[in-house]
Structures are given as structure tokens and as C-alpha cells.
Design goal:
The protein is mainly alpha-helical. Helix 7 (about 165-180) runs antiparallel to helix 8. The chain has helices spanning about 5-15, 25-45, 75-85, 95, 100-120, 145-155, 165-180, 185-190, 215-220, 230-235, 240-255; strands at about 55-60, 65-70, 75, 190-195, 205-210. It contains eleven helices and five strands. The longest helix has 19 residues, at about 25-45. The strands form two sheets. Strands 1-2-3 form a three-stranded antiparallel beta sheet, with helices on both faces. Strands 4-5 form a two-stranded antiparallel sheet.
Length: about 270
């Protein structure tokens, strides 16, 4: 993948969030937002709502972590995707993915949630002097399982020499090591494959093993659909633009981990 392309720049910016190096959060936020908006302009044009997405922090019992969030609603994208996966397959998806079924929809959303989650920084305790030195807030490197998952994602985008079946096996193993082998995760992993788009483009991408649709295509096809009831039940004040921003930012994140389209190899 060309590191200077919009996809390459977004991928690089997202991977930096969980690297654990001492980069001020404001710098990470700026890099991710710039790259995300650049790719959105190329892929979505004027309908883009990704300006509503930012890199922000959340604190829970494990400590403070940094990742993709809605700026005004202040909720993490993975939390929203969790509830989106409980919804029925949106009718709008059938226009671009007519053979997609409910199980694949749920798997696509679950895997998308895990991809967005693994890009977050590891949780860490905030020191007492954090208010005086916010630039020093801890941001430890990803755990081993998270780093392996990120490498498996990057291998798809970087035109690895591995065969697509090997890439898929590597991805499934890394996903389950990161997310644990719950029944839902095991089922979702079985739906995930890596394939190449047909002519005139030849690009490795995460896809669904039965229907063959890329995960990015599935997520982006939801753009503009009404906010699902399951999401509104959990986040009653979420508006349509914020829902669109969630879907667009997630779809573009997945797209950033696809290889650049090229001509297929001869023969």
C-alpha cells in the first residue's frame, strides 16, 4: 500500500494511537482527523459526517484509554457498534449487498467493532499530577494479542506475500486471541475471509466468506439508514448525523486496511 495515499495515511495515523510512544493526544487527534477527513472527501464527498468523530479518552475501572469517539456525544465507536450489531439487517444494505444475510451482518459489525477497539490505546491509570501535565498522560503500548491483530490487519493492506487463505487464517487466529473465544466471536471469525476484488481491480481485503462482500462495503452501505432501535434504546439522544458519522468512520477505517486497487497479475 502506498503510505502517502489517503488510505495509507489513515492507517498509519490510526495505528499510532495504540503504539504507546510519547505523542501528545492533541497531535494524535489532529493526525487521525486530517487523514479521516481526507479519505472521506475522496470516497464520500459532501455527504461526509466524519468531522463529528475525534480521538478522545475514556476512563473505566481499568484506567484511561484513547480511541475513536463521537466528539459531542462523547461515546466510543466500539460501544455504538456493539448495539448496532443487535439490530436487523438494514434494508438499505440490500441495494449494494443483495445476498447478504442476517448472520453475516452481525458478524461484519462485530468484527468491525473489534477492529476499532484494537486500534485504541491500552487502559492505564492516570497519575495524580495529570492535570498539571496532560501531555504526559500514560498511553501504554498494545498488549501482545492486540499487536498481533494489528499486524494481521496491516498484512492485508501491505500486499503481503502470503496467500489469501493464509492471511485469513492469520486474521482469524489474531482476532480470537485478542477478543477471546466466546461463541459470538467464534461464529464471527468463521464468517471472515480475505479475498481479492475482481477485474479491473485486484486488492486484498477483509470480506465475508459466504457472500464475498468486503466488510468496508457492508458498513459503508449502511450510510444514511435510520438509527436502529437497539442503538436508540441505549443512546436516546444520538442523532442521524452522528449515526452516519459512526458508520462512515468505521467503514473508512476498514477501507484503510484494504490493499490499494491495482491491475491483476498476468496469467
Amino acid at each position: 500500500m502506498n503510505p502517502r495515499s489517503p488510505r495509507g495515511r489513515l492507517r498509519a495515523a490510526l495505528l499510532r494511537v495504540g503504539e504507546g510512544v510519547h505523542v501528545p493526544e492533541a497531535d494524535l487527534r489532529g493526525a487521525v482527523k486530517t487523514a479521516l477527513c481526507e479519505l472521506a472527501e475522496e470516497m464520500l464527498g459532501k455527504r461526509s459526517c466524519v468531522g463529528l468523530v475525534t480521538v478522545g479518552s475514556e476512563e473505566d475501572s481499568r484506567g484511561r484509554s484513547v480511541g475513536l469517539r463521537l466528539a459531542d456525544y462523547d461515546v466510543g465507536l466500539p460501544d455504538l457498534l456493539w448495539y448496532a450489531g443487535e439490530s436487523d439487517l438494514p434494508p438499505q444494505v440490500w441495494e449494494s449487498c443483495p445476498t447478504l444475510v442476517q448472520d453475516e451482518w452481525e458478524a461484519a459489525v462485530l468484527v468491525s467493532k473489534l477492529v476499532v477497539r484494537v486500534l485504541e490505546s491500552e487502559p492505564a491509570r492516570v497519575p495524580d499530577d495529570a492535570a498539571r501535565h496532560p501531555e504526559r498522560l500514560p498511553r501504554p503500548a498494545r498488549a501482545v494479542a492486540g499487536e498481533s491483530f494489528c499486524r494481521a490487519l496491516a498484512a492485508i493492506a501491505e500486499c503481503s506475500e502470503l496467500h489469501q487463505d493464509e492471511l485469513a487464517a492469520q486474521l482469524r487466529t489474531a482476532l480470537l486471541d485478542f477478543a477471546s473465544e466466546t461463541p459470538d466471536n467464534l461464529e464471527a471469525a468463521q464468517h471472515v475471509a480475505v479475498s481479492h476484488a475482481g477485474e479491473p481491480e485486484y486488492a486484498a481485503r477483509m470480506c465475508l466468506s459466504r457472500s464475498g462482500y468486503s466488510l468496508a462495503q457492508v458498513l459503508l452501505s449502511v450510510d444514511g439508514s435510520p438509527v436502529p432501535d437497539a442503538v436508540l434504546d441505549a443512546f436516546p439522544d444520538l442523532n442521524q448525523d452522528e449515526w452516519n458519522a459512526l458508520i462512515q468512520a468505521t467503514g473508512l477505517t476498514l477501507l484503510a486496511f484494504e490493499a490499494e486497487p491495482t491491475r491483476p497479475p498476468a496469467g
